[in-house]
Each structure stands twice: as C-alpha cells, then as structure tokens.
Amino acid sequence: MGLKPLPFESISATESSAMYRILLLLCAGLSLSTCDITVLQSSSISLPCLPDDAPKLVDSTYTWSFTSAQTQQQHTLEEKGNILNFRSINANDNGQYKCVQEGYKGEGRVRLSRTFTIRVEAPPPFQEWQVIKMEALNDVTLPCQVAEFLSSSETKSPPVVWKREKEGMVPLKPGKDTDDQEEKDTTPQRVFWDARPEEQDWAIKISKVREEDAGMYHCVITDSSKTLLVELEVQAPPLPFCFGHTDPWEACLDSDSRSGQAILQESLREFSTYVYSDLKSSKPNTNLIFSPVSIAAALYNLLLGARGETRTQLEYALKLPPKFSCLHSEIKKLQQVLKGTLTMASAMFYSPAQQLGESFINQSLEFYDAIPQKLTNDSDLNVKLINDWVADKTNKKITDLIEEVDSSTSFVLLNAVYFNGKWKTVFESTNKWEKFTMFSDQTKDVMTLYSSKYNLQMGYIKNLKADVGKFLLTGKNSLYILVPPTSSEKDFILMEKNINYKSIEDMVSEINKIPVQPAEVTLPIIKLTKITPLEDLLRNLDLSDLFLKPNLCGMFPEESESFISDVRHSAFLSLTEKGVEAAAATSISYSRSFSSFSALRPFVLILWNDEAGAPLFMGRIIDP
C-alpha cells in the first residue's frame, strides 16, 4: 500500500521539512508496512523505523538496508538505530529503505519491518516578475526592457507582443498615444505604446487604470523563448478628504444644564491665563493688552467647521472637554447675558471660488450671528471691507487690523469685542501728574486718576505676591489691578509667574470676601492699542495643523487644501476718568501700614466679568 506523493515543489524548504514530518506521522499512524515519500533535492528528512503503536520488543536491534532505484542493488546501511537521518538528500538516495527490528516479545523472538520508498525530485526553477502598484484612475506604465535578450542587429519594431492573463491569454493591441486630450476623451482605447526603442524598453501605458485591470501581463519577446512578466496591482482610490466629516455640528442634548455654563467658564479662565503666559513670554518688558474672549470666540467659530483630528486639537487647545457639543449654544447664551456690557461680533469673508457648507452657514448665523461675505478679486478692496467691519464693531477704536489680503487667501475669520464700563465710584481729580517708576528705576511723569476716599476692595494676595485692588464698573464687571511689592523687574516677573487659572480663581474669591473700604487711590491714565500676531501662540497650543492641512470639512465640504496663512489680534484699552473702554479684534509677606492703593509702577490688569466667570481683557502696563 502506498500514499500519493505531496506536491512539495510548491512550498519552501522550511515548509517541506514540516510537511515531511507530518507525512511520516501519517505513515506511522496508519501502521503501514510501506510508505512512499517524494522529497525535494537537498532537503532534510528523518525516517522512523516503526510507528509508535508497534509492539515493544526487548533487547532489540535495528538493521537498515537500501535498494538503489538506479542499480537495483541492495546493501546494508551502517545506521543501527531506530531513526535514519538524511541531512541533504540527493538523486543517489532514490530507492527503497527497509528497516528490520529484531527482539523478544514475551518468550518468543520476533522481527518487525517497514519499507520506505524515497523519490528525490529537483526543485522547480524560480520565477521572477515585476510588480507595479497604482492607484485607480491614474495612468500606469508597464515596462518591458528587452536589451539583454536581443542581438545588437535587431531591427524589428516592435519585437514584442503583449498579452494578459484573463480566462486564458488575451492578446493586447496597444494604440498610438496622442497629446490631443479631446481625442483621448472620446476614444475607448486605453492601452497605448509607451515604447522607448533607444532604451530597448517596449512599455505600454494604460490610461485611467481601473480595479479590473489588475492582474498578470506578459511581454512576449518574438523570435525568442523569453517572456517578461509584469503584475499590476490596482488600489482603490482614497476616499475624499471630507468623506464622513461634512455633517453639521451635533445638537446640544442638555441645553438647560448649568454644567455646560460651568464648563465654558472654567475653560475660558484656563485659556485666558495660558494665552497671557504665552504672550508675555514672547515679548517681555513691553506693554500688553488682549481679549482672551475675542481670541477664544474666533477659534470657537472655527471649531464649528472643524472635524476629525483638527477638532480634537482645537478642543484641547481651548481647554474644552472632548466632544463638548453644547459649546456653541453656551456661547450664544453668554453673548445674550453680556449684551449691553460687551459687544461681541463674528464675521467670515471667503473667496468666491470656495463653496461653503450650507450647515456651517446656518449654524454660524444661529450661534454667532455671522453671515459669510464673499471677498472680491481686488486686494485693496478686501482690506477695506475687513477693516471697515472691524472699525464698526469696535466703535472705531480699531481701524487697521489687517494691511493686505493675499490673493491666495481662501477665508478670513473675524471676531471683535467692544467694552465700555463706567466707574461706580468717581475719581476726584483727573489732571494730577505723578511719577511712574519703571524697572530701570527711571521715572516718567504721567497724568493720573486720583481719589482720597475711593471705595474698593483690596488686599495682599499671598499666592500672587501682589497687592490687588478691585474697582467696580457698571454691569457685573470689575477691573482688577495687580501690583508687585516693589518696582523691581524681579518682583514683577515673580508675580507674573504666579498667574494661572487657579490663582486667578482664588484671587477673585479672596478679594470678594474683603469688605469695601475707602482708600487713597492713584492710577495712571492709559490709552493703549496693541496688534499681536497669533501664529506663534497657535503653534504653542499644538495647532500647527491649522497652517498645514486642517480638516475644516464642516466649513468646506469640497475643500481639502485650505489652511490659515495669517492670524492676528488687536486690542484697545482706555483707562480714563469716565471709566474703562476696551476693544479687541481677532483675525483667527508684605502689607501696607495705611489704606492706599497706587499703581505707579508696572502692573497687571484684568477686566473681569462675573457672568462670564472669566477675564474679558488681560494685560500689563510696563511703560504707560
């Protein structure tokens, strides 16, 4: 009885060794007296004399004999054990191998035997072919370089025939390529010669390759037995950049919950102090004024159109929890609450070549009262359109937010805020001159606001290492002024270093516990306007993708190449006898021995709104 040889020529040497072991186990399991095995030349194989279930003999010996398939001569092998090993089998090993075991079974002496027929075959030759991978709908070239197979006298053109494996061999009939695109579009021919005879490359080109074009192609060299193979793999085209990212911003399911308001307030406080820390570090020893609410609101509006990783990055940068769906509805509520105190407005100018998503337009109008406006083809006119809008929304306090609009600009996202609050306690004098001491100990004469009995809450905040005065304004607004113990730069830097969202929360809470008291107050009169580029800030917030390839598919469902090219913020602050006027626009242990409060050295100011629970403006005055 024999077994059908396994097709070992189709597997590797490592795999074949494993297969031989499986086959031998199969022979053993069937208790066969003969076993036929076909092996590849140079393989390794071990033949066990008897199967495991054979009778166990005592004092046994083994004898192996070999009958050559070529000479039919039999001779005894030197191998005396149960296993016959071949380390590198060859053609001379073809033949029959018989093993005889002799020993005692009980009281009688018996012999057991088994015969193996080994056929050694040469391994098949390897085959080599070139693999071309191409994305669907692109043109692909299949090469056929035949120089080494043709004599130098070869003149036949073309010396090859192309065929394709498809339910048999299908001949291809390449056409002649043309530069006429209109002709290409009207002809069904998609396979063309792309030959370069001087390089002996008789390639073909398949235009707008399809997934069904995948398979094996044969370049058959005529007058020769050679065939060059090329395998074409066609990959499905990638999904559109915005696939699955064009749905509107999800609805807020718990719009009446106070938790949404608390989340927004906390994130605004944390974002505000982060921005202050970043901006004060980028330009030390200079005056600073900005509106964190304006910067955040511009990014909130951008977030409305962001999807995927860009949304995740923006939420993280704005200190928001992931998937905070109620953000925009909470911002809308906040704008209503601040109405009459803080005017906040958003706008979007976009290229006429852009197609804005309908849901983004509707939701921008719903949450931000922002009606998108088209830019023109005139850069100067675009500058005027944008600056006029900003001037109008900031009571003409900011008139030159941008200087140019590049022709490549696809959209400009704007937010502007304007604040005008009156002092609840009026200052007695507005024409008193005092000396303001700067870091260098130099002094500067400044006009001041003065009152001998000004009602305020004030105290030394240990965590900030600063004297803090709270000046009440109309509405639920307050101006906090933070003054270090001395005019030294070291003390000022230490105070600034202690400013974070937790220390500001604690400051507001601690000052509000202190009773209002009359005090002598001196403040410098200030009018300050600062334009601040925000590109570095956004990069420090890990938002560099906004300048590369952001996912703004909620805004531009058909667009994948939009990016932010310029982001700037402008803020205005006026501290006069009338009160505090401020505007901003964003394009994407020590104690006093007497009751007095003076800000005649570098100080930090925070314009706080109790309803927002966050700063509306923050800044510092180094040189009034």
How many distinct beta strands? 30
Share of helix, binned: 10-25%
Shape: elongated
Let me know the average pLDDT: 83
As a whole number of angstroms, the C-alpha radius of gyration is: 43 Å
Structural class: alpha+beta
Task: Present the secondary structure layout.
Blueprint: H1 13-29, E1 34-40, E2 45-48, E3 58-68, E4 74-76, E5 83-86, E6 95-105, E7 108-121, E8 130-135, E9 140-142, E10 160-165, E11 169-171, H2 181-186, E12 191-193, E13 204-206, E14 215-221, E15 227-235, H3 258-282, E16 288-290, H4 292-303, H5 308-317, H6 327-338, E17 342-350, H7 358-368, E18 373-374, H8 379-393, E19 411-422, E20 429-437, E21 443-461, E22 466-473, E23 477-483, H9 489-497, H10 501-512, E24 517-524, E25 526-533, H11 535-540, E26 568-576, E27 579-587, E28 596-598, E29 603-609, E30 614-621
Parallel strand pairs: 1-7, 8-15, 17-18, 24-28
Antiparallel strand pairs: 2-5, 3-4, 3-6, 6-7, 9-13, 10-11, 10-14, 12-13, 14-15, 16-30, 17-19, 19-27, 20-21, 21-22, 21-24, 22-23, 23-29, 25-26, 26-27, 29-30
Helix pairs in contact: 3-10
